[in-house]
Amino acid sequence: MAVRVFDLDTNGHVRGPIYLEFADHARWECVRAAGISLDDLAAAGFGPVNLETTIKFHRELRPGDEVLITTEFLYGEGKTSRVRQEMHRLDGTLVAEVTSVSGLLDRTTRRLVANPAAHWRQYAKAPEHLGL
Protein backbone atom coordinates (compact mmCIF):
# COMPACT_ATOMS: atom_id res chain seq x y z
CA MET A 1 0.00 0.00 0.00
CA ALA A 2 1.34 3.42 -0.88
CA VAL A 3 0.72 6.51 1.25
CA ARG A 4 -1.32 9.03 -0.69
CA VAL A 5 -1.34 12.79 -0.13
CA PHE A 6 -5.00 12.77 0.99
CA ASP A 7 -4.11 10.19 3.69
CA LEU A 8 -2.26 12.90 5.62
CA ASP A 9 -3.32 15.06 8.55
CA THR A 10 -2.20 18.62 9.30
CA ASN A 11 1.03 17.29 10.86
CA GLY A 12 2.04 15.68 7.57
CA HIS A 13 1.67 12.07 8.67
CA VAL A 14 -0.98 9.45 7.97
CA ARG A 15 -4.29 9.91 9.79
CA GLY A 16 -5.38 7.14 12.16
CA PRO A 17 -8.45 6.04 10.16
CA ILE A 18 -6.24 5.35 7.14
CA TYR A 19 -4.42 2.62 9.08
CA LEU A 20 -7.84 0.98 9.53
CA GLU A 21 -8.51 1.29 5.79
CA PHE A 22 -5.15 -0.31 5.01
CA ALA A 23 -5.86 -3.15 7.48
CA ASP A 24 -9.39 -3.70 6.13
CA HIS A 25 -8.10 -3.77 2.56
CA ALA A 26 -5.44 -6.34 3.45
CA ARG A 27 -8.01 -8.59 5.20
CA TRP A 28 -10.37 -8.43 2.22
CA GLU A 29 -7.49 -9.24 -0.12
CA CYS A 30 -6.88 -12.39 1.95
CA VAL A 31 -10.57 -13.33 1.63
CA ARG A 32 -10.37 -12.72 -2.13
CA ALA A 33 -7.14 -14.73 -2.41
CA ALA A 34 -8.87 -17.56 -0.55
CA GLY A 35 -11.38 -17.64 -3.40
CA ILE A 36 -14.37 -16.59 -1.34
CA SER A 37 -17.13 -14.73 -3.10
CA LEU A 38 -18.86 -12.34 -0.73
CA ASP A 39 -21.91 -12.56 -2.98
CA ASP A 40 -22.01 -16.35 -2.45
CA LEU A 41 -21.53 -15.89 1.27
CA ALA A 42 -24.37 -13.35 1.41
CA ALA A 43 -26.61 -15.58 -0.73
CA ALA A 44 -26.05 -18.34 1.83
CA GLY A 45 -27.20 -15.95 4.55
CA PHE A 46 -23.86 -15.05 6.16
CA GLY A 47 -21.84 -11.89 6.52
CA PRO A 48 -18.61 -11.00 8.30
CA VAL A 49 -18.81 -8.51 11.18
CA ASN A 50 -16.08 -6.60 12.95
CA LEU A 51 -16.58 -6.41 16.71
CA GLU A 52 -13.43 -4.68 17.89
CA THR A 53 -10.30 -3.13 16.41
CA THR A 54 -7.21 -1.87 18.21
CA ILE A 55 -4.34 0.05 16.65
CA LYS A 56 -0.95 0.34 18.29
CA PHE A 57 1.18 2.99 16.60
CA HIS A 58 4.98 2.59 16.57
CA ARG A 59 6.26 5.01 13.91
CA GLU A 60 4.66 7.58 11.69
CA LEU A 61 3.98 7.09 8.01
CA ARG A 62 4.81 10.00 5.74
CA PRO A 63 4.29 10.88 2.07
CA GLY A 64 6.09 8.49 -0.23
CA ASP A 65 6.18 5.64 2.29
CA GLU A 66 5.01 2.24 1.14
CA VAL A 67 3.57 -0.26 3.59
CA LEU A 68 3.76 -4.04 3.66
CA ILE A 69 0.96 -5.61 5.72
CA THR A 70 1.14 -9.09 7.17
CA THR A 71 -2.16 -10.67 8.19
CA GLU A 72 -2.60 -13.63 10.53
CA PHE A 73 -6.00 -15.20 11.24
CA LEU A 74 -6.44 -16.89 14.62
CA TYR A 75 -9.39 -19.15 15.42
CA GLY A 76 -10.50 -20.43 18.79
CA GLU A 77 -13.35 -22.50 20.12
CA GLY A 78 -16.02 -19.78 20.30
CA LYS A 79 -18.00 -17.64 17.92
CA THR A 80 -15.27 -15.10 17.25
CA SER A 81 -11.86 -15.07 15.64
CA ARG A 82 -8.96 -12.66 15.77
CA VAL A 83 -6.89 -11.09 13.06
CA ARG A 84 -3.43 -9.80 13.90
CA GLN A 85 -1.77 -7.51 11.40
CA GLU A 86 1.56 -5.74 11.28
CA MET A 87 2.36 -2.82 9.04
CA HIS A 88 5.99 -2.33 8.05
CA ARG A 89 7.76 0.16 5.85
CA LEU A 90 9.63 -1.54 3.03
CA ASP A 91 12.85 -1.16 5.04
CA GLY A 92 11.32 -3.43 7.71
CA THR A 93 10.44 -0.75 10.26
CA LEU A 94 7.31 -1.66 12.22
CA VAL A 95 4.89 1.27 12.01
CA ALA A 96 1.69 -0.17 13.48
CA GLU A 97 -0.05 -3.26 14.78
CA VAL A 98 -3.77 -3.79 14.21
CA THR A 99 -5.73 -6.43 16.11
CA SER A 100 -9.34 -7.20 15.27
CA VAL A 101 -12.03 -9.42 16.73
CA SER A 102 -14.64 -10.56 14.25
CA GLY A 103 -17.38 -13.05 13.71
CA LEU A 104 -19.61 -14.42 11.02
CA LEU A 105 -23.22 -13.27 11.26
CA ASP A 106 -26.16 -15.48 10.40
CA ARG A 107 -28.23 -12.84 8.65
CA THR A 108 -31.52 -14.63 9.42
CA THR A 109 -31.09 -15.11 13.17
CA ARG A 110 -28.90 -11.99 13.56
CA ARG A 111 -26.53 -14.03 15.75
CA LEU A 112 -22.91 -15.04 15.36
CA VAL A 113 -22.38 -18.56 14.08
CA ALA A 114 -20.48 -21.09 16.14
CA ASN A 115 -17.12 -22.19 14.74
CA PRO A 116 -16.65 -19.48 12.09
CA ALA A 117 -13.53 -21.24 10.81
CA ALA A 118 -15.67 -24.14 9.56
CA HIS A 119 -17.91 -21.74 7.64
CA TRP A 120 -14.96 -19.89 6.06
CA ARG A 121 -13.37 -23.22 5.13
CA GLN A 122 -16.60 -24.34 3.44
CA TYR A 123 -16.51 -21.37 1.04
CA ALA A 124 -12.73 -21.10 0.53
CA LYS A 125 -10.98 -22.53 -2.50
CA ALA A 126 -7.58 -21.70 -0.97
CA PRO A 127 -8.20 -21.74 2.81
CA GLU A 128 -4.53 -21.29 3.65
CA HIS A 129 -4.95 -17.56 2.93
CA LEU A 130 -7.24 -17.43 5.96
CA GLY A 131 -5.03 -19.50 8.24
CA LEU A 132 -7.20 -22.60 7.74
TrEMBL record:
<protein>
    <submittedName>
        <fullName>Acyl-CoA thioesterase</fullName>
    </submittedName>
</protein>
<dbReference type="Pfam" id="PF13279">
    <property type="entry name" value="4HBT_2"/>
</dbReference>
<dbReference type="InterPro" id="IPR029069">
    <property type="entry name" value="HotDog_dom_sf"/>
</dbReference>
<dbReference type="InterPro" id="IPR050563">
    <property type="entry name" value="4-hydroxybenzoyl-CoA_TE"/>
</dbReference>
